[in-house]
């Protein structure tokens, strides 16, 4: 097996372990958002495994790359990957959503090492990412800013203002990943408010855009490298499946924000071996 294949296999194995962590921590908490965490985790694993310059021994390094999880309710995906990179341990994940835990329901940079954005209302992460990308240029630092958006989140007008601003200022150190899983809080996106061809819309705002299968690890790794090599701001539109990896959660809007019960946890873990 070639080295690249070994790398892809290793990333896929990490993604499966992260899926187990996601389902387990949400079950223990009795609350959380499994669907969007599972749709995003392949992308996050690919990013951290191939591009992110981070160090758990120096989490506040000014040279670290920034990952902005704008759809902050998908915090279990962030905590799962941070555990793999030694920013968190199992006891932290076991305390997910409990009072005083470093793993709150939405990511919070004041609570958790390795988190660089405090999320709440959707639509704000890209504007924040523009700020960090600008700061890097102003301070002559070479770190990269990566922002993950949900597709339902692109219904927010602030997203499009930010896209326009980033293009105007030619922020080549800013990268966006759109988790196009087609489901938002209450239902499918096309039922709530259809957003159409997101890739073409983002491209019309002056961005470089690449569409991929957001669960094909080789395609993810290639797209991330493409983003690094592209002049100007770039966006990856990743077509994903909400709840990916757990059959009864896949494409199921009810698991946007519902914890699995004991029986469902057992079934999920049997699928994630």
Termini separation: 22 Å
Strand order of the largest sheet: 1-2-3-5-4
What structural class results from the helix and strand content? alpha/beta
Name of the CATH homologous superfamily: Thiamin diphosphate (ThDP)-binding fold, Pyr/PP domains
Give the overall silhouette.
Answer: globular
CATH architecture: 3-Layer(aba) Sandwich
CATH topology: the name is Rossmann fold
Number of domains: 1
SSE succession: HHEHHHEHEHHEHEH
Q: Specify the helix fraction band.
A: 40-55%
- Uncertain stretches of 5 or more adjacent residues: none
* Strand runs, count: 5
Largest sheet: 5 strands, parallel
**Beta-strand content:** 5-15%
The DSSP helix count reads 10
Q: Please, what is the average pLDDT?
A: 96
What is the radius of gyration? 17 Å
CATH level-1 class: Alpha Beta
Question: What tags apply to this protein structure?
Answer:
alpha/beta, 273 residues
Task: Describe how the helices and strands are arranged.
Elements: H1 3-29, H2 34-50, E1 66-69, H3 75-84, H4 90-94, H5 125-138, E2 145-150, H6 157-168, E3 174-180, H7 189-192, H8 198-204, E4 208-213, H9 217-229, E5 234-239, H10 262-271
Parallel strand pairs: 1-2, 2-3, 3-5, 4-5
Helix pairs in contact: 1-2, 1-3, 1-10, 2-3, 2-9, 5-6
